[in-house]
Amino acid sequence: MLKLPYATGGLPGIGGTIRELSGDFVVEEIPAFEASGAGEHVFVNITKREVNTRELARRMAALFDLPITAVGYAGLKDRNSVSTQTFSLHLPDVEPGRLSDVEGLLSAELPVRVNWIRRHARKLRTGHLRGNRFTINVTGLEIGVDEAVERARAISEALKAHGMPNFYGPQRVDSVNVRNGLEVLKGRRRVQSRWLRRLLVSSYIDHLCNLYLVRRLEAGGFSRLMEGDIARKESTGGMFTVEDVEAEQPRYEAHEISFTAPIYGPKMWWASGPSGELEKEIFEDSEITMDDLKRFKVLGSRRLGRLLPEIRVHAVGRGVQLRFFLPKGAYATVVLREFTKDEEVP
Fold first, then answer.
1. pLDDT at residue 251 above 80?
2. CA–centroid distance for 63 within its chain
């Protein structure tokens, strides 16, 4: 398995345990848009625990006698957390005045708290979120809380000042998924489940993205832009090619722009110059070809290469509490490992 370096490797961690209790890991999904109040789909915002998103979607479909495709959600949340997120249900025949019946049935039959419910014209789909807000308690510390808070604040300040690589988390790119994804791409392994097949293929491609970020960090190309980078504007999301590094570097240091990393595929916007050479080197050293990716309908894209989290640190009764927001696609476990300095963060 690829060993990920720390962005704050020179600072001591706090150790400790994540998710000793489900309430130690709280995540709130931040929507990309608000439900309009009219339409065939019913948006339901819920808080759940001890059940993951996919299982809850299946149970909602069964409860309302719907096909699973009639239930939508923006992102996956696991069972070992207290998670607030929105689901959509295709219920065109439910009269506006009967939405309270939908709320009552959900509350009575499923392990959820319904926060609000309203209609919208379109189904909620994967990626329809701005990001997630986290409140996480690190407990079981082997050092004093005061020392842990001091260390955590030093790490927080370093991440705020310099940022960190936007690695995919271990739950996405564990060694088994990466290996099996390569086997699927090369036609040496057949997987009947479309969902699992897509997951495995994505795991291998995401592994290559992580490898790019590792190589870039090790080569000293994280603190500076590289010629030919495809940069992303933090304010608008617009992307452009970096032609003059010296002209753009002040904007990078001011956190106005960041470089992007490759998600390989035939429609990916390739970097040029030294940045593009690094991308090509990693792809050519892999065992896959563009034909392999085309066969599995992988298109390719760019991923934000640098995270700039602002993390609030507090002492709580059982340890240290971290509060922060991450944009969609970023992994809290990647942030947490900077604090615990533990490769086994769940």
1. yes
2. 29
The residues annotated as belonging to the active site are: 78
Q: Class of 1-28+130-162+309-346 per CATH? A: alpha beta
Q: Which residue has the higher pLDDT, 97 or 48?
A: 48
Domain spans, the chain: 1-28+130-162+309-346, 33-126, 164-307
The predicted structure's pLDDT at residue 96: 75
Q: Distance from first CA to last CA of the chain, Å, rounded?
A: 16
Whole-model pTM? 0.92
Residue bearing tokens 């970023």: 330
Provide mean pLDDT across the span 155-168. 96
DSSP string for residues in 46-69? EEEESS-HHHHHHHHHHHTT--GG
Which residues lie below 8 Å from residue 238, measured CB to CB, with a gap of 6+? Answer: 232
Q: 251: phi > 0 → left, psi -120 to 50 → alpha, else beta; which?
A: alpha
**Dist. CA 8–CA 14, nearest whole Å:** 12
Q: Are 174 and 2 in contact (CB under 8 A)?
A: no
Distance CA 133, CA 120 (A): 24
Is the CA virtual torsion 221, 226, 228, 233 positive or negative? positive
Q: Tell me what the mean pLDDT of segment 96-111 comes to.
A: 91
